[in-house]
Amino acid sequence: MKALFRRVFLYCLRSFPGLWATLNRFRPFYRFMNRMVINFSIGIAKRRPHPFSTLAPYTSWSSLTDKTYLGRHLPAKPYPADLPAYKTVSEVFRRPAGGGRLCPKSTLLFPVFAQYLTDGFLRTDMKDRRRTTSNHDIDLSPLYGRLPKHTDVLREKSEAQGRRGRLKTQVIAGEEFPPDLYEANGTTVRAEFVDAATGEPILDMPIGFHTTPTATSPALNGHVHRIFAVGGDRANATPLVAMMNTLFLREHNRIAGELEGRNPTWDDEQVFQTARAIVIVIFIKLVVEEYINHITSVAFPLAADPSGAWTAAWNRPNWMTVEFSLLYRWHPMIPDTIPWQGRAVPSDAMVLDNRFLTQVGLKEALRMTSATQACALGLGNTAPFLLPVEDAAILQGRGQNVPPYN
Q1: Cβ distance 346 to 238 under 8 Å?
Q2: Distance from C-alpha of 331 to C-alpha of 353, rounded to nearest angstrom
Q3: Rounded to two decimals, what is the model's pTM?
Q4: C-alpha to C-alpha distance for 239 and 340, rounded to whole angstroms
Q5: Distance between CA 301 and CA 290 in Å, rounded?
């Protein structure tokens, strides 16, 4: 009977968009249904805490509490010894020459937002893939940093009137961007982002840009690329991800200005912390009400209403899992080339170089990104330059004995 109810309920959720639009105008009904849909969706999976983690294939006190390891939805299942080589497997992802299948629904803005979102909490440790550096929350860590020392060094910390609560910026061609991480030579981390006692960078260094995370390692391929000082080591991955980060940086500083103007007695700390809380809530509303509603299969539009979680039996601290990290992969949506300033730029040429953003400005970058059709999800549609990422996913799944699942 329960299974039948689930089928009927799911059918209703996936159908009748016009009816839902009409009924949802009655706000008490909308909030009730929103809570029902969320509870229904979450109820499909087992409730947290996860009994297993990537620490060990069995349950222990550490596996239940040490969140530097990834959680598990499923118990580990050893792989057979006669598996094909991972390079052979990753070929099923390869996009054929001549371009990929296009997505009929999404522009390039969608996978760019997805990458910016997930880079904040799906943070596998590159040195030990059992572990994660995640805070396990949607907390805009690509903007604010995942640790207090990161946040601290990214702030202006000024009590001057008109500057309280701001994040550091620089002005390029009349526009506000994050400050540069490196000096003009592209090889030396700027002194304000280096720990004076140790000589080591304070921020997490951009993944892939330098051979080692030191203040004096060589620039990528011998070229001086523009890399911003930001909260996340993946927020410089492409100028499109940096575009999203810049958008929220500007919004933080705009809101800080509004707060300071309305509360002239507030000091820098109160303005900053209040602006940060507001921007994170705005981001979560965008995630739920724009991003998730864009990809969901249901006709009922979800709302970011926290009241449904206050008394919910499933409400537990979040813990990212290895299955989720492997599932949440949007690489096929990235096209081989991106139309940029009237020419087709190879997507891999944009990696780790924010000059593409600063040369056109934020508004034009958002326009071009939104005007570019994304490619479709699915096998046989990943651009060749992204196949090493698929390789890493296969190896992580095998290394952590993640059972096959669909």
Answers
A1: no
A2: 19
A3: 0.91
A4: 12
A5: 9
Q: Classify 191 as helix, strand or coil.
A: helix
E runs forming strands in 152-237? 170-172, 175-177
pLDDT in tens, 145-156: 999 999 999 999
Helix or strand or coil: residue 385? helix
Cβ proximity of 142 and 230 under 8 Å: yes
Q: Which two tokens stand for residue 79?
A: 């792989």
Question: What is the residue whose two structure tokens read 């002194």?
Answer: 191
Instruction: For residue 106, give both structure tokens.
Output: 């999404």
72 vs 53: CA distance, rounded Å = 5
> What value does the CA radius of gyration of the chain take, rounded to a whole number of Å?
23
* Beta strands per DSSP E along 108-204: 170-172, 175-177
Distances (CA, A) of 238 to 152, 208, 242, 280, 282: 24, 11, 6, 22, 23
In whole angstroms, what separates CA 249 from the centre of its chain? 15
Which residues, 6 or more positions from 321, have their beta carbon under 8 angstroms from its beta carbon?
A: 50, 70, 71, 72, 73
Burial of 79 (0-12, 13-18, 19+ CB in 10 A): middle
Q: What is the mean pLDDT of residues 164-183?
A: 96
In tens, the pLDDT along 236-268 reads 999 999 999 999 999 999 999 999 999 999 999
Token pair of 255 as six digits: 């809101």
Residue with structure tokens 């780790």? Answer: 352
DSSP 39-99: HHHHHTSPPSSPSEETTBSS--HHHHH-TTB-EESS---PPPTTPPPHHHHHGGGBPPTT-
Residues 6+ apart with CB under 8 A from 184: 224
Coarse DSSP helix, strand, coil percentages of the chain, rounded to the nearest 5 percent: 45, 10, 45
C-alpha–C-alpha distance, residues 314 and 47, integer Å: 6
